[in-house]
Backbone:
């Protein structure tokens, strides 16, 4: 048994792309190479180290050999704490530490019509998953993407969004909670557009990532739209220190988000004691409370999605 | 296959201790006027089989409160390997043997744990009767060790010492001490079984333990039961620190002028910040949520994961908890409905 498990590999920052005011995408090159990253699955994550500042988990937003060059590791990071603030102070050429890839990603079913539902930073793992499905599907399996940001300035991965918007068989629905002058897209929450997205492509499968409060609402709406719980795949977020199933921070019931997840099916999460805390299943999404928390698509007819108007106007 | 031997008496146990101390650090539980504690022993005096179980268990020998994992100088990072002399824990009780077996499974892929564990020899001593507050018999961890030791000693009523040998390392330790051992004959094995029976029946009947476990496994515990326990948790981390199976940790960087160390230190899932995410989201925001997560995992879900529950009935959490919600009291609360 080696001591390597918790020791990061050295990696150099080769590119930094600003996504929004508080989010950047970092391209890292491990030196010497870490071949495991070239085989990473969408939804898997890396532990990023800044010596002296600690370590944190970040999902891979582009996979080597697909949207990223082999030998690179691409992470999209929002600045929220001390480690990410220290990372944002670095320039290309600086060294960081990397471990991974870790966890169970999204199941690889490229020929299933799939709805991707992302809120905020949650677009990052789904961007990797969408890119993978577009590359791996045999024919023109339809894909729908529902992406919600807080406001137009908070949108990330705009280059990918622009590509998907131009793609004839990707149905992209974008919304913001708070519109700004010039925003021509939808206003609302992602949950409002889920049913229409499912119906629009006849989806049998869904992939979801976003803020914790969003997840059970979107999952319930997906189920009501006809997607089975076993085929709703949710990338969970938990604080974690090790990534190897030992530190205890991320466990839910008897499952570890770092090793058993981070991607779980909704059916798996429903079987756990408190996957969504007090906001979870049987809580905020109860039938009587549902209308308030996840407003019905019917009430929001102005933003109803149909395949005919899938070109959401944008700034 | 466990070998069953018998030693003529205490003198041979002391000879075994002296022999072990020649090649290994010998740790024994000593009182020395204070609390019972694992201390390095020279084996000069006679062994005290009735010394109380120490409040701090044996987990710190393998999963220490503070472990340096790596060090760096500039961008160069090196793993820091623990330096451990071969040692023997002499007088380990069944609860702690069960706890170490549990942690062996949990830390099966952890190199730092494995390095420390490989240096250890266990000589267990079975408990003749229940200790105050102990409920190992109710959770299948004692009072007699069911395996996970190198040697296990039982004092028979006639003064002889029954020895179970489970490993080659244990066999070698006995051979090195050149003791006068005999295979245990059927009457001796019967005497051993009688000691075990007497030890088991010395425990008070606690039907609520079984009842609580059944309710936990069936997910019958209502949230208000947990929330009622929540205010009694002061997040002092006494229970998780003393619990011989608790293993939560955090990692802390300690930088110094371009160099530094990354250190693993004990953490506690009962602390408010344990699960709080950088975004501010908290999956267990209330003390009752954290108490539920902790006890539900330890008393019920560990069974799914490891084939044994995370509680070995040592009772240390009940001794230390200022809010009176140690394991036995939680089991009583949950099992009395």
Residues:
């Amino acid at each position: 048994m080696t001591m390597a498990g918790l020791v990061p590999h050295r990696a150099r920052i080769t590119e930094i792309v600003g996504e929004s005011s508080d989010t950047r995408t970092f391209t890292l090159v491990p030196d010497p190479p870490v071949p495991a990253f070239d085989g990473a699955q969408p939804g898997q994550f890396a532990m990023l180290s800044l010596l002296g500042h600690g370590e944190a988990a970040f999902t891979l937003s582009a996979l080597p050999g697909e949207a990223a060059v082999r030998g690179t590791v691409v992470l999209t990071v929002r600045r929220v704490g001390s480690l990410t603030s220290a990372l944002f102070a670095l320039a290309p050429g600086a060294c960081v530490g990397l471990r991974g890839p870790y966890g169970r990603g999204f199941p690889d079913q490229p020929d299933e019509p799939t709805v991707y539902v992302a809120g905020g930073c949650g677009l990052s793992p789904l961007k990797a998953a969408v890119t993978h499905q577009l590359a791996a599907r045999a024919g023109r399996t339809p894909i729908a993407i529902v992406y919600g940001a807080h406001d137009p300035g908070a949108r990330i991965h705009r280059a990918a969004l622009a590509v998907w918007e131009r793609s004839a068989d990707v149905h992209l629905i974008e919304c913001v909670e708070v519109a700004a002058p010039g925003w021509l897209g939808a206003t609302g929450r992602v949950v409002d557009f889920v049913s229409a997205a499912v119906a629009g492509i006849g989806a049998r499968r869904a992939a979801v990532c976003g803020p914790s409060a969003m997840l059970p609402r979107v999952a319930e709406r997906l189920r009501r739209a006809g997607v089975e719980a076993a085929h709703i795949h949710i990338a969970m977020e938990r604080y974690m220190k090790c990534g190897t199933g030992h530190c205890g921070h991320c466990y839910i019931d008897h499952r570890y988000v770092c090793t058993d997840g981070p991607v779980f099916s909704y059916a798996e999460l429903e079987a756990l004691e408190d996957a969504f805390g007090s906001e979870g299943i049987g809580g905020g999404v109860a039938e009587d409370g549902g209308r308030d928390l996840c407003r019905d698509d019917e009430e929001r007819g102005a933003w109803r999605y149909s395949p005919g108007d899938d070109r959401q106007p944008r700034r | 296959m466990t070998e069953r031997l018998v030693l003529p008496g205490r003198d041979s146990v002391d000879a075994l201790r002296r022999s072990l101390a020649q090649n290994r650090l010998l740790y024994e539980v000593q009182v020395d006027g204070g609390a019972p504690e694992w201390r390095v022993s020279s084996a000069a005096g006679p062994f005290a089989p009735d010394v109380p179980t120490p409040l701090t268990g044996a987990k710190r020998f393998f999963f220490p409160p503070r472990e340096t994992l790596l060090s760096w100088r500039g961008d160069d990072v090196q793993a820091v390997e623990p330096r451990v002399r071969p040692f023997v824990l002499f007088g380990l009780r069944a609860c702690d043997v069960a706890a170490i077996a549990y942690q062996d499974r949990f830390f099966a892929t952890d190199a730092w744990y494995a390095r420390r564990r490989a240096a250890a020899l266990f000589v267990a001593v079975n408990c003749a009767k229940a200790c105050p507050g102990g409920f190992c018999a109710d959770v299948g961890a004692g009072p007699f060790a069911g395996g996970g030791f190198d040697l296990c000693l039982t004092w028979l009523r006639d003064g002889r010492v029954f020895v179970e040998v489970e490993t080659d390392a244990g066999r070698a330790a006995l051979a090195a001490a050149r003791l006068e051992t005999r295979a245990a004959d059927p009457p001796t094995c019967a005497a051993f079984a009688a000691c075990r029976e007497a030890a088991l029946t010395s425990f008070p009947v606690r039907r609520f333990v079984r009842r609580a476990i059944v309710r936990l496994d069936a997910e019958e515990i209502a949230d208000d039961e947990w929330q009622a326990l929540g205010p009694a948790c002061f997040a002092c981390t006494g229970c998780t620190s003393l619990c011989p199976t608790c293993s939560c940790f955090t990692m802390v960087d300690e930088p110094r002028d371009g160099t530094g160390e990354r250190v693993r230190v004990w953490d506690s899932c009962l602390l408010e910040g344990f699960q709080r995410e950088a975004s501010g989201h908290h999956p267990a925001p209330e003390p009752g949520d954290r108490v539920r997560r902790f006890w539900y995992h330890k008393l019920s879900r560990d069974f799914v994961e490891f084939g044994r529950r995370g509680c070995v009935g040592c009772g240390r959490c009940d001794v230390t908890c200022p809010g009176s919600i140690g394991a036995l009291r939680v089991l009583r609360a949950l099992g009395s409905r």
User: Anything to note?
Assistant: The first helix of chain A runs from residue 82 to 88.
